[in-house]
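Support case: user asked for a sample of complex input and structure output to validate their parser. Sending the pair below.
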Amino acid sequence: MGAKVESDPASGKNRTAAERTTDREVVVTRTFDAPARIVFEAWTRPELLKRWWAPKSYGMSFVSCEADVRAGGAYRFVFSHPDFEQPMAFFGRYVEVTPPSRLVWTNEEAGEGGQVTTVTFEERDGQTLVVVHELYPSKEALDDAVASGASSGFGDEMFDQLDELLATPGASVGR
Amino acid sequence: MRTGAAGAAPAGASCKPPAFAIILNQMVQYETARIDASFAALSDATRRGVLEQLGRADASITELADKFHMTLTGMKKHVHVLEQAGLVATEKVGRVRTCKLGPRQLAEETAWIEAYRQLWAARFDALDEIVEELKQKEEVDGRKGRE
């Protein structure tokens, strides 16, 4: 009856958990059935990263994916999405690259309020626990990120889009 | 290497536009009714300003009216709409009615975290496939790097 049975994907082993741990930080965890060096490789080779970072179910696709994965190296990802009039760029710099256990990078596209992302890879019994920490510079910065989903961040255009979405029958169905 | 938590910049620009559409789409999928209810409340710039203001500190209706250069009556109406949507809670102490963020704000945070989690879950499902592929390739390539 073991709740940790591998063949049961709903049992929690492969469950992605997310939590706001402090005023300034959000943490995501997930276990992968592979050694840390393999998981790390998938995070650090741009041609691999590009295949999973922008989930297809979100309708996003990479326009370009440049990443100089070493301390001090820059990255720049450009995505397109049917809802965006023009492609969106995400960029920053790697602060730490320690194979196969730790990655740290900055997120600079939103200016100074950007968070620093730290990812740790902890291997145990051939499996790897991945922990993503996103640390914002202040409580206000994280509050703003949260609020932008609900209020202050929207321009009228965004509201129009939402109205459309809300008015579309079946828009609430799906993943 | 964005996590999709907040705004993205248009390629080639470095301003700070809100691009929360992706996560929001997810939120909408399970929050439709609730978001719909609060949309009227949020569709007004003054009311969004009031929420931002209350995010910093509680305030009386008089203070809010001053800050937004409105009459007391006008501000009362706005606060009422926000209160109906659960975005603001008010409490009258003596002659002063104090406004603060309402229960819906907490719900918004919960929804945000859930949308955020779903984004990562979708990513990680795709990553699972890549990891599986790499594992198999490593086995085929002959156990190099293994003990």
